[in-house]
Write a structure and sequence with these properties.
Elements lengths: L2 H7 L13 H11 L11 E7 L1 H12 L19 H16 L6 H9 L9 E8 L4 H20 L3 E5 L6 H8 L5 E10 L25
Antiparallel strand pairs: 1-2, 2-4, 3-4
Helix pairs in contact: 1-6, 2-6
């Protein structure tokens, strides 16, 4: 698979099969992804992996834990303006249409959002942390690392879903994986094989035309 094909085929998968993924495969993907660029070669990413039996134990822990979770950050700006707000609204409506959930069925919509916290049934999950001393430039580095990882996963025949929603459960995640307090949870990634029979996995999000966001000076 060339890079262009990997970019075109990668998308957020929200329904996975229970097909196992070997730890060794994940380790190889992480090692390759670590070639992603970072300013000053700081390499700020810190990754914790749950897989297979450990994933099950983690999900059971979430259901029984009384740890109080507080969000690590605001996932979206509070006053998001157009056209960014419009794009976010449309992809949500497109997704719920594929799921057959109307706008007025708030309970069903919340139930689907809660599936973030089961990795959408993926057998493996990754958590990406960053040291709290880092700033916006290092967060950019995280993005480059994560995109590199997801493209490599696509090349390896695996599917992914990047999940900033895990930042809402940061204290629980930190406790289970044993991450120190100086590390901030940025996001999770669900990793596995997509379920081809689930309509939600046919969602292809729109992209704005080039002339709306690129200027050739």
């Amino acid at each position: 698979m060339n890079v262009s094909d990997a970019v075109a085929q990668r998308k957020s998968i929200r329904a996975f099969l229970d097909t196992p993924v070997e730890d060794s495969v994940i380790a190889q993907l992480l090692e390759k992804a670590a070639r992603a660029p970072s300013g000053g070669n700081v390499q700020p990413w810190r990754i914790y992996v749950v897989n297979g039996e450990t994933t099950g134990k983690f999900l059971e822990f979430l259901q029984t834990s009384d740890i109080k979770d507080t969000p690590e950050y605001d996932i979206y700006p509070k006053d998001l303006t157009s056209p960014y707000r419009d794009s976010r609204f449309k992809v949500g409506e497109d997704m719920y249409a594929l799921l057959g959930i109307p706008r007025e069925d708030k309970a069903a919509r919340f139930a689907h959002l809660a599936r973030n916290y089961t990795f959408f049934d993926a057998p493996a999950g990754l958590f990406c942390f960053v040291d709290r001393q880092m700033g916006p430039p290092q967060w950019s580095d995280l993005g480059m690392f994560l995109q590199t990882f997801m493209l490599l996963a696509q090349e390896a025949g695996l599917d992914t879903c990047a999940q900033e929603a895990w930042a809402m459960r940061a204290n629980s995640v930190r406790h289970f994986v044993g991450a120190p307090d100086n590390l901030m949870l940025f996001c999770g990634i669900a990793l596995g094989h997509k379920n081809p029979d689930k309509p939600v996995n046919s969602l292809v999000s729109d992209r704005a035309p080039l002339e709306q966001w690129a200027t050739f000076v």
